[in-house]
Amino acid sequence: MTTRRDCEHCEGPMPITARSHARFCKPACRAAAHRAARTVPAELTSRPRWIRRTSRKVPVAVDGAAASSADPASWSTHRDAVRSTAGAGLGFVLNGDGVVCLDLDHCLDAEGEVAGWARNVLDAVGGSTWVEVSQGGDGLHIWGYGALPHGRRITVGGGSVELYGTGRYIAVTGRTFGGTPQRLGDLQHVIDSLL
Questions:
Q1: Does the structure show a pLDDT above 70 at 145?
Q2: How much is the pTM?
Q3: CATH of 99-194, one of 1.10.150, 3.30.2250, 3.30.450, 3.20.20
């Protein structure tokens, strides 16, 4: 029995004729994925806390074994994670070292317009840090530095914001939102205002 494989970039089904080690359904997806991998800030790619993930966001190691945000032995370098054919995409593990991610769920409409409540959060960030479009295409991940001892989910103006700094992995797409810089900025003032 053959299991269904998904394209690492668009997450659509792989063609039946695709080789077993193929990662992308077509050349355009391969090119887009390689461009996206280059947009991830060095503050993330330099840390050996990368995993792979399935299309359903289940974490897997680069060799296809189970991975965990609590098991450093299942993490790898960004380079090894990008080269791996396991799963359908990349993930970065937050381990409490000061790298945080604010996950704005369902804040983009079909045209890519930002909901008002999310625009307020982005305005507070002020364009000082890297923001990427989430795996589903309708959310945003705001990456930066801050102190966040445990994850929280809060409601802001009718929308949902998840704040994470440890014990969690975040699916990374590398699809930079707007003209945000390829660096991590200080998010502590935003975290404090949200909490």
A1: yes
A2: 0.82
A3: 3.30.2250
